[in-house]
Amino acid sequence: MTTTHRLAARDLTLAYEGRVVVDGLDLDIPPGRVTAIVGPNACGKSTLLRGLSRLLTPASGTVLLDGADIHSLPTKTVATRLGLLPQTPTAPDGITVADLVGRGRYPHQGWFRRWTAEDDRAVAEAMLSTGVTELADRAIDELSGGQRQRVWIAMALAQQTGILLLDEPTTFLDISHQIDVLDLLLDLNAARGATVVMVLHDLNLAARYADHLIAMRSGAIVASGEPGDVVTAELVRDVFGVESVIVPDPVTATPLVVPLGRHHTLG
Description:
By secondary structure, the protein is of the alpha/beta class. Helices cover 32% and strands 26% of the residues. The protein has a 6-stranded mixed beta sheet, with helices on both faces. A hairpin with a 2-residue loop joins strand 9 (212-217) and strand 10. Helix 4 packs antiparallel against helix 5.
């Protein structure tokens, strides 16, 4: 069982080249739960994830990992508690699948700690759970976009951190593999108690798979809580600019957004 770690932000402002993207945001990620961050394009979702993962230094405010400023902690300490799958990860030329997934074990290595059977087991489990075992000896640059995405997820899983941040983990995946990946993340949360935070474009998948939703617009959080409380026709209108009807998902009873186009109205 993974130790539960806590991630929060206080008065967090994030900017690129002087342009504020996330402004004065306060946030507490529910530990041991699955959180989805949703919102329209360019609303600050990915920027927030980069700030929470320490990839982006705040213009002001603080990101707290287990109560400490994340920027005050040693890099290896952060890497053993928090893993990140960025939106567009890049791999060294020619690296194989097995070698890339193995890099997820680097934070667990030390000056005197060599590769162990535990590392082998973590890599094998991560590759098996993401369905990439048969690709172990293939070069990353030979794979399809969907295969590469699953390999990157395997690397993040092999890191075995208490918090896992994923920016659009279903990118490049067809609907079958989208469901596989999201089911896998729920399994990880259930088996290890891992805290999962993911940016998703698909509001219906977010509502189905997340315990906690964070809806963003223009760099601010406009709503957060359980999907049944957050996903309303008013929120979809205010955040996405779309008129919709909210009905119960016939499988999970979670909110299901049925958008109304210009050529469709309620009868």
